[in-house]
Amino acid sequence: MIGALLRLLLTSIVSVFGLTLLTFFISRQASSPLHFYRSDNVFTQYFEYLGFLFKGDWGKSSLNGSDVLTELLKHFPATFELLIFALFIAIFFGLLLGILAAKHRGGWLDNGLMGATLVGYSMPIFWWGLLLVLFFSLYLGITPVAGRIDYQYYIKPVTRFMLVDTLISNHHYGFAAFFNALNHLILPAITLSWVPMTIMARMTRSSLVNILKFEYIRTARSKGLSQTRIIWVHALRNAMQSLLTISSLQISILITGLIITEYIFAWPGVGNWLLNAVSRQDYPSIQAGILALSSIVIIFNLLLDLVANYLDPKKRRPI
Prior knowledge:
This protein has twelve helices and no strands. By secondary structure, the protein is mainly α. It starts with a helix and ends with a helix.
């Protein structure tokens, strides 16, 4: 277990090193220097650049002169809130659909669910988002088109997590503001989670179908256990390690779709902010956005890999 932990940490450190190296060379493409280095040597400048990052000096925006780290922290809670909600939808409903398909293997429900996930996987995320807006927002009128909350609610940004701020606010709105913010979150989260959810459903179904052929599953059936108990208690537990590994791979897909989703729904997060920075060639903001989004991928992958290794009895066994 210790060896696996050290390998994961080493991999994360190497990834962070490559990430900072990439953003360092991006910062050198700016027309005006983001930082003033004491040395002319590129190798020495890189370590000076790391020092600036650790001190919180991420440069100033080339557009309005605002502090880039301050702007990043202002937009980050919106992105994190959307990402967590989308990740929950992808994992929960992906597992549920995969279990239903495996339980009714070869039946109409299995074929229907796998066919639907194949169609969903092949549909571009921007097209899926626009279809959701047209149907639920414009045609049915049950969800808002864009933003995080209606303008009729004024919520003081304490934590900048809208769901949290609506609950701790002292306004007379009560839970109305919370449910309004939650209603704004539904469509972007569904759009962002759709592709990872379909992948999770198909992989869950495939893993469970293979595990249900094992000898210990036949033994459980011979003891009279129900199919539902066999799947949820015995088969799913042994499939969780591979499913967690798949989940870690979905984080990068979520981050990739995050920029498009935030742009479609005018979500004031890091992805939308980064896209505007790219269009205006604001290199300090581009550098900060890449660092933030890539760090999320690295951290989530590390945490999920740690859980997957903990669930592996071979790696928990002392040498």
